[in-house]
Amino acid sequence: MIHTQRPPSVSGSIDDPLAAVLRPSPGESPHDKELRLQREADAKRISDRIDEQLSIDRERYKKSKQDVRLLLLGQAESGKSTLQKQFQLMYNPTSLEEERISWRAVIYFNIMRPVRRIFEGLDAFGDSDDDDDLDLPGSSKIIASSSDLTQLSPELTASGSSSSPLSPASAAAEDAQIALLRSKLSPLLAAESSLADRLSGGLNVAGSGKGNVYVRSGWQARSLNLPFGRSRSRGDSVTGGRTSISAARSSLDNPPTGAGGDLLIEEVARLVDQSKDDIKQLWQHPAVRRLRARRKLRLEEWAEFFMDNITRVCSSGYVPTTDDILHARIQTMGVAEHIFDVAVHGRVVTWHLFDVGGARGQRHTWIPFFDDANAIIFLAPVSAYDQYLEEDPRTNRIDDSLQLFTQICSNPLLKKVHLVLFLNKTDVLQKKLSRGIRVKKYITSYGDRPQEFESVVNYFKAHFTQAHKRNNENKRVLYTHLTSVVDTKATKSIITNVSDSIFRKYLEDAALV
């Protein structure tokens, strides 16, 4: 048996040592006692608040484990942000209504950019009658971005197909007209950089395409002076939902565009109103129509949409329509989180939708969101067969999209994630095929297959399906949809179907069915 001896005590007391620390000093005055008790009460209140917050955080964490996390992935300009707007329109229309006026600045910028590109195209080509034999990857002889070609009407194609050169007098007259329009529109173009700085807050993204403008997540809330990073009102219905944009917070908030308005935006609104007739004249000018018909000028589909609606969107008192917001284009830096309450099969579940930047320089930001993801919607723009990455003019956008999809399928963190594929921009694909833009010129493996929509889309679908099969050890089902996410009616039906399939998988994983 081992015997131990109690260590000698200095005082012989076995009191709690903490009690000794808290014991008042023998000579404590009434005033000192009052101060001591006040400090103890303050410390108790702080401790209670910490305990309460810890309890709230624990409950919130438990609840969040039951939420659905949906990632929207795809290359830049694949339609992710437009799809996010469709989710917002379907599950939280109130928040879209709150943000409506903030999109005005983006739409004005979406008008300024194509006006500048038109003048650049006229400067580069003038009245050149060269055929479209320089339409090659990275060609500096084409005024373009990585976006789609302009949608040419049959009338435009016919008017621009004439090979008859202009007479010297006609050419001189057109040059004078263009010079006058350039002079009239110079104040508008001079405001472009200021508007870009206002939207972006000076953001620069490494590896992004030249001339692109990025905004920080939550720019709508900042521009409207709304609470940033907080949940918006749920609304009365279970689909009213809430939206929170909480990633990539910035300390450089943009000046608010509240009831008093933003002086810069109001000045731009005045300029576009004054310039709308000149912009319309430029857009319809024979020299510009010839440039577009020869495919020497490439504009995004959103640019053509706004140029075709120039009188309406540039008029005084303009408020963006939902269709305008769906077509508006601005690239977001970082990851934007949107939260919705979704009712499926009589049960309401909170969905966290993550819209992440698709530019090559931003794709590393996806990885932290893979761990807890329940589902992915991957958007592949099938209309991009004749386009190349701005970041790498040697890489075809279809090839880049396929490589990116393969990486998603093979990522070990995502092996059990519900996977949905949107072959997007089918409307633009149909227009390109109807104009005779040959697939095999850009996708040589397409060979002599028919230049028809069904054949082309099935060819691309087969390649994405094969990439999935090669990386599908868990026998995961791939749900594929042909989409045009600017089409609200069709997209609403697809979202309903996708939500249902994601929810069923969610229940299966939770062992509830």
TrEMBL record:
<dbReference type="GO" id="GO:0003924">
    <property type="term" value="F:GTPase activity"/>
</dbReference>
<protein>
    <recommendedName>
        <fullName>Guanine nucleotide-binding protein alpha-4 subunit</fullName>
    </recommendedName>
</protein>
<feature type="binding site">
    <location>
        <position position="332"/>
    </location>
    <ligand>
        <name>Mg(2+)</name>
    </ligand>
</feature>
<keyword id="KW-0807">Transducer</keyword>
<dbReference type="GO" id="GO:0005525">
    <property type="term" value="F:GTP binding"/>
</dbReference>
<dbReference type="GO" id="GO:0001664">
    <property type="term" value="F:G protein-coupled receptor binding"/>
</dbReference>
<feature type="region of interest" description="Disordered">
    <location>
        <begin position="230"/>
        <end position="258"/>
    </location>
</feature>
<keyword id="KW-0547">Nucleotide-binding</keyword>
<dbReference type="GO" id="GO:0031683">
    <property type="term" value="F:G-protein beta/gamma-subunit complex binding"/>
</dbReference>
<feature type="compositionally biased region" description="Polar residues">
    <location>
        <begin position="1"/>
        <end position="12"/>
    </location>
</feature>
<dbReference type="GO" id="GO:0005737">
    <property type="term" value="C:cytoplasm"/>
</dbReference>
<feature type="compositionally biased region" description="Basic and acidic residues">
    <location>
        <begin position="29"/>
        <end position="40"/>
    </location>
</feature>
<keyword id="KW-0342">GTP-binding</keyword>
<keyword id="KW-0479">Metal-binding</keyword>
<feature type="binding site">
    <location>
        <begin position="326"/>
        <end position="332"/>
    </location>
    <ligand>
        <name>GTP</name>
    </ligand>
</feature>
<feature type="binding site">
    <location>
        <begin position="424"/>
        <end position="427"/>
    </location>
    <ligand>
        <name>GTP</name>
    </ligand>
</feature>
<dbReference type="Pfam" id="PF00503">
    <property type="entry name" value="G-alpha"/>
</dbReference>
<dbReference type="InterPro" id="IPR001019">
    <property type="entry name" value="Gprotein_alpha_su"/>
</dbReference>
<dbReference type="InterPro" id="IPR027417">
    <property type="entry name" value="P-loop_NTPase"/>
</dbReference>
<dbReference type="InterPro" id="IPR011025">
    <property type="entry name" value="GproteinA_insert"/>
</dbReference>
<feature type="region of interest" description="Disordered">
    <location>
        <begin position="1"/>
        <end position="40"/>
    </location>
</feature>
<dbReference type="GO" id="GO:0005834">
    <property type="term" value="C:heterotrimeric G-protein complex"/>
</dbReference>
<dbReference type="GO" id="GO:0007188">
    <property type="term" value="P:adenylate cyclase-modulating G protein-coupled receptor signaling pathway"/>
</dbReference>
<feature type="compositionally biased region" description="Polar residues">
    <location>
        <begin position="240"/>
        <end position="254"/>
    </location>
</feature>
<keyword id="KW-0460">Magnesium</keyword>
<dbReference type="GO" id="GO:0046872">
    <property type="term" value="F:metal ion binding"/>
</dbReference>
